[in-house]
Amino acid sequence: MTLFRNMFCDQNVAFFRVKFIWRYITALFVLLMSMSAARAVTVTGADIRVDYIGTAGPTDLTYRVFVTIYTQCDASGTIGLKPNIEIDVSSAKYGINMKLPLDRMQLTGQDTLSPLCPSSTIKSSCFDINNVNAWPGYIRNTYTGVISLPVQTDDWVFYYWHPGNGRWTTSVNLCDYWVMHVAAVCEFNNLERYDNSSPRFNANPFTYIKSGMPQQIYNGATDPDLDSIVVTPYYSLGCLSFNGANCPTCGIYSEVTYAAGLDVNNPIPTNPPNTYHVDPATGTASFTTMGNTNFAFGYKLSEYDRRTGKLMGFIVRDIALPIRAYMGGDFRMDSLPSNVNGAVVIPSGTNNLVVCPGTPVTFDMGVQPGAVGN
Question: Number of helices (H) and strands (E), helices first, in the chain?
């Protein structure tokens, strides 16, 4: 009986230890996850593009893929960004599904983005974290990798989904954990031309938008093959399928619907007559907003073969921008230019510039807001 009792006690002790260790591991896992979520990088947008880099002619289907993740300079810094990521590459017609690893490129000074003038860049949050609300700055984080596609087809899809970005906007239907995600997509056709490259957005889209003032968001749409391009407003990406149900109804590329009163052509409240408009040739968005919070903006850049007119693919840019109240007062501009290059001021002390035809001219004009905070 004593032997049996000792064996029974030993088993209970062993069970208790296992149970304690399991609870400890579970608690530690939850703690680490919460710390990771609390310090996750704030992603404010994403881009993707595909470049043909083959050298051996029509049989060489080699391409370089770039994914750009825009992050805000805040307390999280770039915590949560990995040295490498994976994207999905697929063709429904051929039943192909592949993973492509991309490596993060070394950051340079050109990757620090600020809407401020060069002389005032040091005021942005990338240089002074205390200005994250007044003058937010951004970092362009680029990942790249090379892929040899096995076939030519008109339905290649390059897709990246970034979990846990922590952005927040009022212009889309937030549900469960959608707020923590962002995505990038490129549909690509190399059937018509093996050496096709995707279109791309070259301009820095980040700007300080003031409520009640005419604004523009620049995208700089271009195509390296000189194909015809068209930019249209599009949905924000990053919708999440949660617990087996789409929340809200997710699009095929995780498009998320807009909040009540807004839609893909009107993603932000505006003041007539300057309602939201996207230039189809450049992607520049123009509007005067009544908003005063964070809003999401999506842009779809499609390319069409310059000879046949056939669709060659598209990319989507998805960004989130803060809207701030305008403090009032007019802008004051210098009456005379400074640092004039390529021209002569005649007579001196005036704003008359004399220049030869075809000569590039540059000069500075200082502008000051009429109220503190603008």
Answer: 1, 27
Q: Residues 145, 283, 318, 256: is their CA dihedral positive or negative?
A: negative
- In the prediction, which pLDDT does 17 show? 41
Distance CA 177, CA 245 (A): 13
Q: Tokens at residue 24, please?
A: 């400890």
The neighbouring-strand residues paired with 215 are 287
Q: Hey, how many other C-beta atoms are within 10 angstroms of the C-beta on 311?
A: 16
Strands 240-242 and 245-247, sheet pairing? antiparallel
The mean pLDDT of 227-254, rounded to a whole number, is 77
Query: In the numeric block, which tokens belong to residue 54?
Result: 């083959």
Q: Mind giving me the DSSP string for 357-369?
A: TT---EEE--EE-
Give 176-229 pLDDT, tens digit per residue.
444 457 889 999 999 999 999 999 999 999 998 989 899 999 999 999 999 999
Instruction: Give the bridge partners for 245, in sequence order.
Output: 242
DSSP string, 325-338: E------EE-SS-E
Compute CA distances 132 → 44, 68, 127, 215, whole Å: 14, 21, 10, 21
**In the predicted structure, residue 3 carries a pLDDT above the cut 90:** no
Question: Tokens at residue 142, please?
Answer: 């680029």
Calpha distance 13→17 (Å, rounded): 6
Among 85, 89, 87, 88, residue whose Cα is nearest residue 103: 85
Helices (H), the chain: 2-38
How far apart CA 170 and CA 336 sit, in angstroms, is: 43
CA distances from 374 to 94, 235, 295, 328 (A): 54, 30, 19, 8
In total, the chain counts a number of residues equal to 374
Residue type, 330: D
Pairing outcome for strands 138-148 and 200-201: unpaired
Compute and round to an integer the Cα radius of gyration of the chain: 26
Give the model's pLDDT for residue 100.
Answer: 98
- Exposed e or buried b per residue across 41-51, where buried means at least 16 C-beta atoms within 10 angstroms of its C-beta: bbbbbbbbbbb
